[in-house]
Amino acid sequence: MKRSQFLALAAGAATVPVLAACGGSGSGGAAATGAAVEGEVEPRAISWLLSRPADGAVISIMEQIADEYAAENEGFSLELITTPDRPSYIQKYETLAAAGELPELFDTDATPFAAKLAETGQMIDVEDLLTQFGILEEFRPAALDYQRFDDGALYMIPLEFGLEVFWYNTALFEEAGVEVPTTLDEMVEVCETLRGADITPIAVGGQDAWPLERYVAYQPFRIAGPEYIQELKRGDAAFADEPGTASAEWLARLGEVEAFEPGFSSVGYADAQAAFTSGKAAIYNMGTWELPNLATEELPEEMRENIAFFTLPVTEGSVTAENEYVAPSGIGVAVNAETYDPLVRDFLEFALGRYPALYAESGLLGPTTVDPVIPENALPIYEEAIAAAEDLGEATLMPWDTQLDPTTNSRLQQELVLLVQGDVTAEEFLTTMDSTLEENAPRYFEDAEG
Amino acid sequence: MTVLAPTDPSREGQTMTDTAPDASAPRAPRRGRPGSRRPSRLRISQVVSRVLIVCVLILQVYPFLWLLQTSLRDRQDFAASNPFSIPTELTLENFARALEQGSLLRNILNSLIITGGACALLVVCGMAGAYAIQVLGFRGSNLVHGLFLLGIVVPVQVALVPLFIDYSRIGLLDTYVAVMIPLAGFALPMAMFLFLSFFSYIPRELYEAASIDGAGPYRIFFRITMPMSLNTVVTVVMVNAIFIWNDFIFANTFILSDELKTIPLGLQNYIGAMGNTDWTATFAAVSITVTPLLLVFLVLNRAMIYGLESGASKG
Amino acid sequence: MLPHRSRTSVVLFLAPPLLLFGGGVLLPIVQSLFLSFFQWDGIFPMEFVGLENYRRLLFGDDIFWTAFGNQLLYLVICLVLQVGGGLLVASLLLTITKGREVFKVLYLMPAVISTPAIALLFQRIYGGDGLINTMLSAVGLDALARPWLSDVSTVLAAVSIPEGWRFLGLYTVILYAALLAVPREQEEAAALDGANAWTVFTKIRFPHIMPVFITTMIMATTYALRGFDIPFLLTNGGPGQASELVTTYMYKTAFTSGHYGYASAISVFIVVECLVAVGLILFSLRRKDA
After folding, report:
1. What is the total count of domains within chain A?
2. Residues A142 and A97 in one domain
3. Percent of chain A with pLDDT over 90
4. B102-270, superfamily in CATH?
5. Residue A381 counted as domain residue
6. Under a CB-based contact definition with an 8 Å cutoff, are residues C275 and C29 in contact?
7. Least packed by Cβ within 10 Å: which of A265, A350, A409, B295?
8. Beta strand pairing status for C38-39 and C47-48?
9. Both A110 and A64 in a single domain?
10. Which of residues 173-232 of C touch B (CB under 8 A)?
11. DSSP one-letter string for A18-40
12. Is A56–B272 a contact, with Cβ atoms under 8 angstroms apart?
């Protein structure tokens, strides 16, 4: 509909107001029956738009499963549309969505954009789907929660799971004479002491924007819990409110003590990791998906004895507990409602039945409660990190880049660098962010609720 | 709009300046030849110019050498040590990983097909269009000319969504042609621009003489314009092949399946979880994929010299 | 105009380029021009907003104007390096006898290497202990060392230089071909009259290659005004908006923020900007030429 409308428009014809099919917001009525389709399974080729490493575990397992399924269902095939680079994937995803050409399955984060797709009835309710398959209980609650929209609706299937912790170099800590920080304020002191000992305190891959953006969410999550960002993104709270102000001031102080390496804003992911693994930087905030690089014999020999981790420090009067921090289940898989049919349903049932056991073999934490197989070359710390998943609390820290409207988010990413570099003050930062938020958030979310 | 046929007084009465400089041009020492009056000063200027040429050469070639060196470097070594130091030991492991994880040969083939196809389309359309506008001439040629000029200034990024919608309508998505058309289309104004500007060097008298001899527009095109623009064709192809070969944005938009991926898309195969890129393997892949285009350039370069010489012998 | 041309021949020669251009370029441009009068996120139906996008762009968007200023500096650096540098290198090539053709191809090498590799190389050149800082401290200029891509005062030049450097060879090749065509007799005559190299260049060579020079100026200008990938990969416009270009801003507006209508308005601005630039080049250079 949108497409024809667009073409008519381009040809100069009068606009016919066409209302998008509205599936009702949340997991109500029409969508609930969406996951159940009657009819014959007719094998055909289906496609999956995804943004995951080309040689990663998810792709190789899904390909293996697809081959098995194709052996039983002649004519079936799973075509992968792979775009590992995130910005290029987003461009492709949004182009396909705008053209109404999204494939049967597509990867997406729980962004406001995805919420719009769900709201216009373009995605199948996954909670409903997993319940019908009888496997909802097998998933880790945290893994599902990460994929949920604000209203609790679940439209994406998680295929991964991880914890984000602070890896640190015990030798460098010893050299500088610092202890693991227990509060966020102590973290500033630790960084100051490390810097005093001529050690880069924290390695951060600023080029990708998200690693630094994690830091802005920490103070608010401790001070006000997960609700702050949900209110903030709609413009119902302000950056200048207490949690936001605390966050800006904390980051400014981290900047003052030069907690991050100079020029961090243009340091890439791999380089930041190398700075930590080669013993140049003392702290590295990273998820357990990097366990194969951080906690196995892949790690340079000198480092193996010295690596340890701590979880997100708390604050005084923290409303969230020590065992509550960032636990993302990665980008999720959405099911296109328009092309959904008995085949897609049948394949998903088949695939999700086999996936957990196969994924566990990769040695990584999976989205289900099936325990991973610890690889042979793992260091002791590997198992400790895996075990931490068992203690995970209930509140989920949602990274802000999946929450804010995209314009405010881009501005935040840019302003954060300036704040930490000392190019703007905390006050200027808050003013800029609040005016950006005010201009964009209501517009963006009003649409989504309209 | 006569912008592309600037009147140049010094051009009057001289023949075929574009395609027919003297045959010895590439070889004979003719510039900056020392005059007998001030030998020492000119010798200094020659030394300076040679030094400068070599400096520029270093600036232009060093990155490629760095690339090669990095592709031969151990992954850990690259991560840990100064990237500009000479590696202590060399390894071919990156090349093994590059070949194993990607489908480089497939990507190279696709890039060659798309670059070749788009360049062919571009040359044919550019030459024909420039001929119609500049040589044949017609009422409203200025308008058509201006229309093409407009194309030079259009940023490609925003046309992606409309183009994508149009292509999906006519079922062109995920084909070689879907990438070739916009690549050639967006390069066409510039190619035509080059053709028009080089065509303006071909003296009118030549056409008039041929016309008097009874040659029609087709004959003149194939007998005069085309052979004389060989040099320009090579330039147009070289200029555009570079942009087309490196194109990421169109390929990323219109190609979906792995079998059709070009080199810039294929290089993404070395991106790991959350963007953790295997740089040494990427560089190994880049080293492999740079080779075909360089070979083509060397061949084209020979063709260019040949074009110059054959043009001269006719003149 | 050829005396013997026929209507059919004109149509026959004109049809293929018009078809390619019309279908591949004009149609989507017209479509995106229409889009600039709408608000559209790609999901919900489009909403006609008239000139609102343009009003906001011109009067209510501080990032846009920062980006515009940045783009102009980016343009200047690219032009100096590409056309200025290209002309210089092409002239230098004419002074040597052997190996010109080899040099020419070698000069093209950076243009052939794919952009991500170029971006990574420069990231390391500019880095904290990168090539530039190492060289500066080697000659005792430690005070000048800085993270070039993170310092708001240097980042814009830092992202412009790679783009300019990269296509230097390309413009060298084009200008060299033009210089080759300058009639030798005229130069020799001038040299005999006692003209020095500079006079020969300004009075004979440069006027002679003016048409090609205009072409390269237009090429370099329009490419620079649409330049995108190296800044996008190196800094993504940061820190802050210090290296944001109109083009990177447009790309982000369309594909990060999902404001297709607003992004179309920005691209219309880029078209106008390029047209003005081309007009200025033609006006100033052709007048001098005449």
Report:
1. 2
2. yes
3. 73
4. MetI-like (1.10.3720.10)
5. no
6. no
7. B295
8. antiparallel
9. yes
10. 173-174, 177, 180-184, 186, 191, 197, 204, 207-208, 210-212, 214-215, 218-219, 222, 225-226, 228-229
11. -PPPP--STT-HHHHHHT---S-
12. yes
CATH number at residue A76: 3.40.190.10
How high is the mean pLDDT of chain A?
89
Q: What is the pLDDT of residue B17?
A: 33
- pLDDT exceeds cutoff 60 at C289: no
Same domain, A128 and A168: no
Query: Is C115 close to B264, i.e. CB distance below 8 A?
Result: yes
Please state, as a whole number, how many other Cβ atoms lie within 10 Å of the Cβ of residue B22. 15
Q: pLDDT for A44-74, tens place per residue?
A: 999 999 998 887 899 999 999 999 999 999 9
Assess whether A314 and A186 both reside in one domain.
yes
The dihedral built from the CA positions of residue A248, A254, A255 and A256, taken in this order, carries a sign that is positive
Distance from CA of B276 to the nearest CA of C (A): 13
Domains of chain B, by residue range, sit at: 102-270
CA distance B308 to chain C (A): 10
Residues A226 and A365 in one domain: no
Nearest Cβ partner for C105 among B63, B137, B298: B298
Q: What is the pLDDT of residues A87-119, one digit of tens each?
A: 888 888 988 898 888 999 999 999 989 999 999
Whether residue A386 lies inside any domain: the answer is no
Domains (range + CATH), chain C: 38-289 (1.10.3720.10)
CA distance A180 to chain C (A): 27
* A425 in the same domain as A368: no
Smallest Cβ distance to C5: which of B21, B217, B279? B217
Q: Name residues whose C-beta falls within 8 Å of residue A287's C-beta, 6 or more positions apart in sequence.
A: A162, A163, A164, A165, A326, A328, B274
Higher pLDDT, C21 or B21: C21
pTM of the predicted model, to two decimals?
A: 0.85
pLDDT band at C178 (very low <50, low <70, confident <90, very high): confident
DSSP, collapsed to helix, strand or coil, labels residue B34 as coil
Q: Test B153 with C124 for CB contact under 8 angstroms.
A: no
Note which residues in 170-229 of chain B have CB less than 8 A from chain A: 173
User: Is residue A58 domain-resident?
Assistant: yes
Same domain, A297 and A224: yes
Taking an 8 Å cut-off on Cβ atoms, the answer to whether C43 and A265 are in contact is: no
Instruction: List the domain range (segments joined by +) for residue A67.
Output: 2-160+330-372
Q: How far apart are CA C259 and CA C182, in angstroms?
A: 51
CA A85-A87-A93 angle, to 5 degrees, is 95
The answer on A343 and A319 residing in a single domain is no
Q: Which of these, C278, C96, A332, A179, lies nearest to B154 by C-alpha position?
A: C278
pLDDT of residue A22: 38
A414 closest CB neighbour out of C31, C34, C238: C238
Residue A208 lies in a domain: yes
Confidence grade of residue C3 (pLDDT, cut at 50, 70, 90): low
CA distance B52 to chain C (A): 8
Chains touching C (at least 3 CB pairs under 8 A) are A, B
List, in order, residues 6 or more apart from A297 with CB less than 8 Å away.
Answer: A304, A377, A379
Which of A9, A50, A83, A89 should be substituted to probe chain B, the one whose Cβ sees the most B Cβ atoms within 10 Å?
A83
pLDDT score, position A165: 96
Q: Are residues B217 and C9, on separate chains, in Cβ contact within 8 Å?
A: yes
Residues in chain C: 290
Q: Please name the member of A20, A271, A405 whose beta carbon is closest to the beta carbon of C44.
A: A20
* CB spacing of B6 vs C3 below 8 angstroms: no
Contacts of A15 in chain C (CB under 8 A): 46, 48
Query: SS3 sequence, C21-69?
Result: HHHHHHHHHHHHHHHCCEECCCCCCCEECCCHHHHHHHHCCHHHHHHHH
State whether ipTM is beyond 0.90.
no
- Among A140-144, A345-349, C71-75, C109-113, which stretch is predicted with the lowest mean pLDDT? C109-113
